[in-house]
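Notes to self, DNA-binding response regulator:
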Amino acid sequence: MIRIIVVEDEKAIRIGIVSMIERMDLDVQVIGSFGNGLEAVQFLTKQAVDVIITDISMPRMDGFELAEYVRQHDPETHIVILSGYNQFDYVRNALRSGVSDYLVKPVNKKELHQVLLKCIEHKAQERLRKSKKTDLLLRSYLVGELKADQLTLLWDSFVTYQQREMPCVCVVGSFSHAPTAYVKQRASALHAAPEILVCSLTSNLQMLIVAGIWDADEEPATASYERIALVLGLENGCRLGLSTVITRMEDWPRGFSEAMSAYCQYWHTNGKQTVIHYEEPSYPRSEITVMVSLIDGLLHNTSNWMNPDERKKLKGHLYRRAKRIEIRWEDLCRVLGYLLYQLRSRMSDATNRTFHSQGESSDLDLQIGEHAAMLDAIEDIFGRIDAIVAEMNMESGAYERKVVGTVKKIIDQAYHREIELSELANQVYLTANYVSFLFRKETGITITEYIMELRISKAKELLLTQLAMKTYEVGQAVGYPDAAYFNRLFKKVVGTTPRMYREQTHVLHVPN
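result:
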């Protein structure tokens, strides 16, 4: 729900705008209307809003002063300026004050609807960006890349979890529905009041930290997994892994590891068991030592690991042993991670070249866990090994050019949306830092600069060929949903605003 306030000193116009918005079929709500900017500021000190629709000329505090106040105190709030003046100076001053859009009075219902629709879309993208940041921080903590104190420093919301005990269970699964809403709906029917944190581990895997599903007089450690399964609605056959009960935020990483391990035990159930709770492994550690010895045996001689038949033989040995002992996810990750690391080291020694890691180790572990079958996970890693060995035989510079070409192709196809560096790195099986280094080395510019140049080039093309599109719609089409930012960036790169570029260039191309 988008929260809106309307600020207009003429009461009839103010009421008319509120009524117009309330009749629109949009997920919005007008939570206040005021006669001047000062009244609005007093309201904003107590209540956050998403969109402010404000007149310019008002007593006590005008629209520009209100916009400046909001820009300093809550820059994420969208401001739409109303005025009876359709003059360039007013528009320019509005943009300088951080205004998102500009409407001329009398307000046209269709234009107001379009402006609000754009605000809704922009807010959705902001929430998505925040969600990605939240996922990144929490995931970094779960896999051991951040300590608890570092997490709470970067994310204030976690301070409350650090300061209290909260018996909970970590759950890893692939949810086809929105997990938070679904769990709360299920729990409500069972008279429970769960507290839930959701973390996206990969595009296919999520982890829930679920608390508050036990009776007040019940010991969490004695809670049945059947009840947890019931709360999570697992009668639909959803594949899930559950940790033991943990009580402190410091134990969340352990809960994550247990839940992932339980989730991957599905590999050994032949599909007969979809809800699995964590249990300690029953095999001795010597079994993992034997698997490492098999790897060392292959890597001892260069002719062995260069030979595809020898690599295939090792793959068979590892798979059969892992299947026999019903290996846990964390141990399989250690074995396969060791294989990749040692192979890269020996290749570097043999060729005097550096073969960089194919993704961060934590990402690799999660990618292994995504596979529905253990054999698929092992096949995936050995496929990467085959690719690494193939790189050895490529001419100098060919590999770097191939990586950069692949990255460019991905960007060329996805420039219109937000592109994460980690997404590009995962596509070429390299670290984000190394992809950035290679790209700048080969092209002379950064990935960010390349995306910006491509977007501006596409924007110039649309401005001249799609005359029916408004300039802010052109910005949205090329990946800049914020109209003010698109205008500033376009002017910085091209030397003029999108509107002026369209008008000037169109005149130059009109035949005599």
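- The chain has five domains: 2-125, 148-277, 286-392, 398-444, 449-509.
- Residues 2 and 124 are 10 Å apart (CA to CA).
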